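Lab notebook page, bench 4
Experiment: in silico fold of construct C2
Operator: M.H.
Input chain length: 200 residues
Purpose: comparison with the prior construct
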Amino acid sequence: MNKPFSQACENNKRPILNILSEVFSENEHILEIGSGTGQHAVFFGQHLPHLTWQTSDLPINHQGINLWLDETALSNVQKPIGIDLNKAWPMPKNNPQVDGLYTANTLHIISWPLVVKFFEGIAQNIAAKAIVCIYGPFKYKEKYTSESNANFDLWLKDRDIDSGIRDIEAILLLATSAGLTLLDDHVMPANNQLLVFSKR
């Protein structure tokens, strides 16, 4: 099996790293929700060696993630745990306390009920004062930030009617209910945002 590869990950990893290196500077244990190909995990693990980076995804994606992890053999990037947002999160046993969470390009792929479950999982599993980083496209006041995002949303819904670019206002309501305070909303390349929250 060849390693899975995402061109989007390749394109956005360095702009994201520029922000993570600042916001995760005092963190130790990061849980990544939806590690996908594993590209982000190994890149951030290489460049942020002070972090223990715990990958996670549905079991179907673990083999591909492990191919990236095995090739780079980074001691600070952990093998994926199986997280299904419909179920209780099996928190990594070797990490005493998850004090940071990262997810990229997940909230527009999963259904809205799972977006709700995602924030419920943060409320239940993530420590106070943790930093939570969410990367992806959003709508503002029901408007897309670009024509390409509007077209992307049509493509998403055509593929899966329950997916789609989310309204930032609805996301912020869920975040508040999960005990999160928005610190920054960074404008990123390719019409994406990087939301940075702190857990109260």
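Observations: The CA atoms of residues 127 and 135 lie 20 Å apart. Helices lie at 7-23, 39-47, 62-72, 112-125, 147-159, 168-177.
Next step: discuss at group meeting.
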